[in-house]
Write a structure and sequence with these properties.
With 450 residues, the chain is α/β, with parallel strands linked by helices. The chain folds into 3 domains: 5-56, 3-methyladenine DNA Glycosylase II, Chain A, domain 3 (Orthogonal Bundle); 64-314, Alpha-Beta Barrel (TIM Barrel); 326-445, Rossmann fold (3-Layer(aba) Sandwich), CATH 3.40.50.11600. The chain has 16 helices and 17 strands. It has helices spanning 5-10, 25-33, 47-56, 104-116, 139-152, 165-174, 190-200, 211-223, 238-255, 275-287, 300-314, 346-359, 375-380, 386-396, 417-423, 439-445; strands at residues 64-66, 73-75, 93-99, 119-121, 124-126, 130-134, 157-161, 181-185, 204-207, 229-232, 264-266, 290-295, 326-330, 339-343, 363-368, 406-409, 428-431. Strands 10-9-8-7-6-3-12-11 form an 8-stranded parallel β-sheet. Helix 6 (165-174) links the parallel strand 7 and strand 8. Iron/sulfur cluster binds next to helix 2. The site of iron/sulfur cluster (SF4) has 13 residues, from helix 2.
Length: 450
């Protein structure tokens, strides 16, 4: 049962020291209760209290970490059924399947596409996240494939798929510190898998023949002390997997049902032979709770739409995407280059900086922290007024980087020109275009005011 903020507060040291980055213990307790921060952030909580609070405030879908460093992938941690209730925490992982008996050219092609297909959108780099390696009965070939993947795919988390514990152990050791998921625990082999998971400190993949069977497998693994796992209901049709995902999420979130309180792993690659159809199935399963979708391959027309869907579903709508307040030099500006200012809503930043880049006029772009609000909204909310802009310009140091003192403000802020001139008496204020698309023409004609 979840603890309230007051119950958590009683277990805190009540120093009100702020070392957790939150000014008071009460505020910290409220945030822990709301799942907005971790109890580990307070360095003074006793281990006993940590265990009690950590267990009680743990999300109903357990957070699973796979791999490490650049190859780390985090799944689960979900607390709600619908994004508008709070937010979804960790995006669905996109995995590519490789079999130990697959020919070398096919494996090399998949490795090349995995590394090459990286897309940047509003400052976020999007790519496939995992590889699922399938044992086909030849332990040596399976370990060799694992070694190759570990060497050639430094940014891939790994899922090892085998029903043979010895084969899994050998391949897992080849993963080094990139701890893989050990997939394939069933009712028959759960004890051996549990021992291996504890020995290697690795998460397990629990596989059922159906939902009921999966509950039995994960129940046995929980009893054996396994904490981290992903779960596969065995469904190999889109409808079956979708229904099972929904049942599992509802049971975990609404009923706090532990055997289903883990991220799900689903296999569109085993539901059809058509890669485009796989992508469609994956897109439906991503929308309804799949922790990981395993595809047989990736191509740009398959991966890119899935990554965009991932970005849409897992971006927190209550938290605007922002860039840091700073001076951004674009294409090597100097002391004679124009100085522009705009807000820190990342979409605005990337559109404006893209247009400046396209103009080929080296420029200084000042980004003022407006808490992610766009220009007009920020101005209306009192976060982009003349006084705040002046404070930022003065403290930014831009005045030392240019000989002229001319600041180009967004066209939508034309009404604050007079106020800004009063706040910044050493600067000339020029009204720029309203639309970013008009910046190239504006910058090409720009000359410092006399
Ligand atoms: S670090 Fe701990 S003691 Fe200090 S304010 Fe935060 S919760 Fe309270």
């Amino acid at each position: 049962m979840a603890l309230t903020g007051i119950q958590i507060l009683k277990m805190l040291p009540k120093k009100n020291c702020g070392e957790c980055s939150i000014p008071t213990c009460l505020a910290f307790a409220m945030k822990v209760a709301a799942g907005q921060t971790e109890i580990e952030e307070c360095p003074y909580v006793s281990d006993e209290a940590k265990a009690t609070i950590g267990e009680a405030s743990a999300p109903p879908i357990r957070t699973i970490k796979i791999g490490s460093g650049e190859a780390e992938f985090v799944s689960g941690g979900e607390t709600c059924l619908f994004r508008h209730e709070k937010r979804f925490e960790n995006q669905t992982g996109i995995a590519i399947l490789m079999s130990a008996d697959e020919d070398a050219a096919s494996i090399d092609g998949k490795i090349e596409r995995f590394n090459a297909m990286v897309y940047e959108r509003v400052g976020v780099y999007m790519r496939a996240n995992l590889v699922a390696l399938k044992d086909t009965g030849d332990a040596g070939a399976f370990t060799a494939l694992t070694e190759k993947v570990i060497e050639k795919l430094p940014k891939a988390a790994v899922i090892l798929m085998s029903e043979n514990v010895d084969t899994l152990k050998a391949a897992a050791q080849a993963c080094g510190d990139r701890t893989p998921i050990l997939y394939g625990a069933t009712t028959e082999n759960s004890a051996a898998f549990a021992d291996l998971a504890k020995e290697l400190n690795a998460p397990l993949g629990a596989k059922g023949k159906n939902l009921d069977d999966l509950v039995e497998v994960s129940g046995k693994l929980l009893e054996a002390g396994v904490k981290d796992m992903v779960i596969d209901t065995g469904a190999r049709t889109m409808r079956g997997a979708l229904e099972d995902n929904i049942v599992a999420r509802r049971s975990a979130v609404k009923e706090k049902y532990k055997p289903l309180g883990f991220p799900t792993i689903t296999f569109p690659c085993e539901m059809t032979d058509d890669l485009m159809m796989e992508a469609m199935i994956a897109s439906i399963l991503m929308a309804k709770y799949a922790g990981i979708v395993v595809l047989s391959d990736i191509q740009g027309d398959v991966l890119f739409p899935l990554l965009l869907e991932q970005l849409n579903i897992f971006t927190d709508p209550q938290r605007p995407m922002v860039v840091q307040e700073d001076i951004y030099p674009i294409t090597g500006p100097d002391e004679n280059s124009p100085v522009l200012i705009t807000c820190n809503f990342s979409l605005t930043y990337f559109i404006v900086s893209g247009e400046i880049e396209g103009s080929k006029v080296p420029s200084w772009l000042l980004i003022k922290d407006t808490e992610g609000l766009s220009v007009l909204t920020a101005w209306a909310a009192g976060k982009f007024g003349a006084d705040l802009i002046a404070q930022f310009v003065n403290k930014s140091g831009i005045g030392d980087k240019v000989k002229h003192h001319e600041l180009i403000i967004p066209g939508y802020l034309a009404t604050i020109k007079g106020e800004l001139e009063e706040e910044l008496p050493d600067w000339t204020i020029t009204i720029g275009p309203r639309e970013a698309g008009h910046l190239p023409a504006f910058l090409k004609d720009w000359k410092p005011a006399a």
